[in-house]
Design goal:
There is one protein chain. Helices cover about 35% and strands about 20% of the residues. It is of the alpha/beta class. InterPro entries: Leucine_aapep/pepB (IPR011356), Macro_dom-like (IPR043472), Peptidase_M17_C (IPR000819), Peptidase_M17_N_1 (IPR048816). One of its GO terms (molecular function) is metalloaminopeptidase activity. One of its GO terms (cellular component) is cytoplasm.
Length: about 450
Amino acid sequence: MSTLAFAPDDADAIPLLPVTPESLDAALATLPPDQAAWARRLGFRAGAGEVAVLPGPDGIARALIGRGKPEARARGRFALAQGASRLPEGIYRLDGSLDEHDAREAALGWLLEGYRFARYREQAAPKARLVAPEGVDAQRIEALARAEALTRDLINTPASDMGPAELEAAAREVAERFGASIAVTTGDELLAANFPMIHAVGRAAAPHRAPRLIDIGWGSEGPKLTLVGKGVCFDTGGLDIKPAASMLTMKKDMGGAANVLGLAQAIMGLGLPLRLRVLIPAVENAIGSDAFRPGDILRSRKGLTVEINNTDAEGRLVLADALALAAEDEPDLTVSFATLTGAARVAVGPDLAPFFTDDEDLASALTRGGRDWADPVWRLPFHEPYETMIEPGIADLDNAPSGGMAGAITAALFLRRFAPARYCHFDIFAWSQANAPGRTKGGLMQGPRALLAALPEALGL
């Protein structure tokens, strides 16, 4: 079972002293001589995540945990989180030597280190628990940890158990838990309701995996925030079929939907004073006799026509109809999350979440929020001269411009044609390729912590 909450305050909690290599000698000098000698015999050097358990007359007297050298602290995140897996069972309390930023990162990382995906196989979670460090917002950190656990669980679940219907069920559970409204338009109802591109992308799937649009609403006062998440529960590439190797992680192609559901859970759980709407186009991009084809021209909800030059560029199609719906409500801010392009990974790699916005203040707030909450983001441009690349001539828009250049930017420009005026788009990887402190291999939340931190400034909360 994952431990995603802080331990209750306990006067007998074991003191946990964070130590850097440069402060090691000074730290040992503050300890009783026998404990300092024990730490030296253990060979403790205060490397990132290294621990030393120091005995006392009644058990563990205290523990030391390494923060690593300055370059390690600058290059990595959640180094102290490794202690949750390396320390023996017990309740620990950081000694208070960390500043507010470092204490917040340590606390969040500790909870995230407790995540385990145990749906199909039992996974042992760390048994070392942490009292919330003094001065941190424990409620917010716990809400973020639970949000990330939801996001990871959804992404990690294979498509056999996480199709459009199961994604709808997860959305219903979140909505009902917080008293939110939810409406779902499914199958051929999408055509009657004027969501033609969502229908086109998902119509080849089996009937029990029919395409749908999930629409959640919560809150009655405050500014309007709309979150849109790409919910492609499996992407074969369609008739432009992906190579086998490229399909291995396509269960994560609904990572945008998972990220917005996790973020929505946090927003509702924290009771933020806003009106929240969540839109998730949930489909399977399957291969079948009714699959949409290269060369087809689709008409969108907005009325713009789209030439299909690659059926593997389907995410922007389903998002376009959802964004057009969002625009009709005139929200104060709309943010989309999608595992949209390989070009974004080429541009910034898997660890950064690139985002696009024309709003300078929002961009600055997101950058600060990412830095403050260990959620690194990087701004990419809506570069106007590339608009011509998404205009094929035969239709209003091209879903997959030829040439192989600027793929992340042209995809973002495509989405902006349908989006409300104040718009931000995240093109995320939503996946950790290997185990790292606070981040087990598999599904990942990218961008929501930065956005949550930016909302007070962005929406005047």
